[in-house]
Amino acid sequence: MKIIVITGSPHRSGTTAALAEQFSIGAAGAGHQVCRFDAAFKNVHPCIACEKCHTTEDGCAFKDDMEDLNPKLLEADAVVFVSPIYYYDINAQIKAVIDRFYANDAVLHGHKKAALILAMADDTIESADGAVASFKSMTKFLEWDIAGTLIGVNCGDVEALKKTDYLTQAYELGKNM
Ligand SMILES: Cc1cc2nc3c(=O)[nH]c(=O)nc-3n(C[C@H](O)[C@H](O)[C@H](O)COP(=O)(O)O)c2cc1C
Prior knowledge:
By secondary structure, the chain is an alpha/beta fold. The protein has helices spanning 15-29, 52-55, 66-75, 92-99, 105-108, 129-142, 158-162, 166-175; strands spanning 2-7, 33-38, 78-84, 113-119, 145-152.
């Protein structure tokens, strides 16, 4: 299976980077082909709703790093979103990527699995409700099957993350995709 892992954090060695890495090790060990797109280190302009993608043959107005991601997204069997919680939601860097799906949503529909991996400082899972709700709505709209959701609470930094078993859970999620 071809899996694209999209991360949002600007921390190269933060909690969600560690979770993404363990997921990828688990998935690769199970024979899956894993490709990672770290949105915070890419040039992805936010959608400006110009509708050029839907009204012309030229596609999206922005010729940026989404041009690399789009073909991989189209051929992926699974898309995994990995984000820190920022103000009760996924962060802006990963949201910019998701909004840019708009240019290709007709061809992105169906035949994919999806998973969500989140980390946050709070100790209450409810702090991820907004992120989980939009993930469920997005996957329903795109007709993607949810393969798993991992919500890491009490994960304000890597030291805190290491006191939990979320790294193992991320590995297992990758292995069982
Ligand atoms: C701008 C900002 C907003 C945040 N908002 C929340 C929040 O609403 N709830 C929470 O539990 N943690 C919040 N956090 C903490 C991060 O989710 C947490 O530190 C996470 O581990 C960061 O992941 P990273 O190391 O992969 O970047 C916030 C952090 C930042 C920088």
